[in-house]
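Encode chain A's predicted structure.
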Amino acid sequence: MPAEASRRAAARDIPVIALSGTVGAGVQAALDAGLDAYASILTRPCTLDHALQETSDFLVSSAEQTMRLLLVGRRLAWQEAEAR
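Encoded structure for chain A:
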C-alpha cells in the first residue's frame, strides 16, 4: 500500500512522508516507487499492546517532529536563497 500511494503521488509531483509503527524491509520498494521519506513513530522499544494503546500519542508526536524538521529545512533554504 505505501508503494502504491507513493507511486500515485510521485506521478503528480506530490511529496510523501510515511509515519509508521515500524520500518521494515519493504521500505526500499516504497522509496523506489516515490516515497520521499519515512520515520517510525516509536521512540523506544515497547510491547505491541503498549504501542497500540499509545498509537495516537506516538503519531501526534512524530507528526509534530516531522513538521518541525520540514520548517527547519524551509528556513535553511530561505537563508541560502538570501545569501545568493
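The first helix runs from residue 2 to 11.
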